[in-house]
């Protein structure tokens, strides 16, 4: 390839970017998103959906791959909320998604830059199941995304994924599209009339505020200050899972997974400390 052709290919290669789609209203997402302690913009993305647009990220400084960061962030958000989180990410070589829901193992799929599928078909079916998508129509569309198609690159594949989710109420604002660089996504989000900034706050206040905001009557017994035995069980489970996650993230210098582990430890510590300092009658 000539120098001119190489330069032209470099200009057309998408810069790294990412979006976090939450299946919840912005008012429920905001307090939980603060737990990440990252600067983001939050706006509505359809009926029952919200989107978080990172204002910056370690991938821009070459510190960590965008897919690893987003997987950790999605996991951290999902363990602190009763709704699923879908992370979309892309760089010059690949594009893909990670779906996190509660304490279940995240599921994801990857396409090479030219659109070549590089994931497992079962991931698509798990994706559909966890989002309660149509088991026939939507699964057929997802299966098609996992088949070779020389006419579709990674960006087109991600747009196809979003098209499937429109039938589940997703309506991503114009301009917030896969393949766009972080700066462009931030500019588009800022222009939205309902956009709001999300910034970090004190760890304990954020944890408590986030739990109160997302918890409904069904989840109340699991809250640290509920006085229910279930709260202690959950706190111990969170610490048991959070510690190895945090250690793994520290050893591998993965800020995303370190955040997920730290969040679980914060939840568990808060629950256990409250249980010990407020004994039941």
Q: How would you summarize this macromolecular structure in one to three sentences?
A:
By secondary structure, the chain is an alpha+beta fold.
Structural description of this entry:
Strand 5 and strand 6 form a beta hairpin. The chain contains ten helices and seven strands. The chain has two domains: 3-197, no CATH class; 215-277, no CATH class. It has a seven-stranded antiparallel β-sheet with strand order 6-5-4-1-3-2-7, with helices on both faces. The chain has 281 residues and is of the alpha+beta class. The longest helix is centred in the last third of the chain and has 23 residues, at 229-251.
Number of DSSP helical runs: 10
By DSSP, the count of extended strands is: 7
Total count of domains: 2
- Estimate percent helicity: 40-55%
